[in-house]
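Need tokens for this chain, all 173 residues.
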Amino acid sequence: MGTGKWGTAQKPAMAGVLTALAVAGSLLSIPVAGSKCAPVQHMVNVLAAVTLGPWWGVGIAFCASLLRNLLGIGSLLAFPGSMVGALCCGMVCRGTKNLKLTCLAEALGTGVLGGLAAYPVAELLMGAKPAGLFVYVIPFLISTAAGSILAFVLVTALESGGVLERFRMQGGR
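Here are the structure tokens for all 173 residues:
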């Protein structure tokens, strides 16, 4: 596998590996305010943005959220948090090719926008009565900050070792 474009089988295979990593990593979650904060999902969002691009990242976040819910190890709040963050960091990565900004976009996309999007999900789909519109922002920010820092360290290490270049796709950094 060289640098540049991948064949048709490699992108779905990489997406499957990243989805599995997100699901397995969700076993390391912290319950906060009715949500299960899973920092590994946020690390995966950044990895997907860097290697596959924004739309693959959103798909990975959706599949991981769905699998976590089907396995009983996630909540419906995983959908808005992970998918909004994946889209934000993927678009910023595509536009800037800057890892720091990509990680920041993941943190703000998940923490603020995903946290706000979680409110109607909790109220309408889960029957919860959240204390306010911003109730999920702090827990989501805690989770995504940890995951974004982890992603920054991991991607920086993979780049310095020359490993990441082998996994970059069109649309990645």
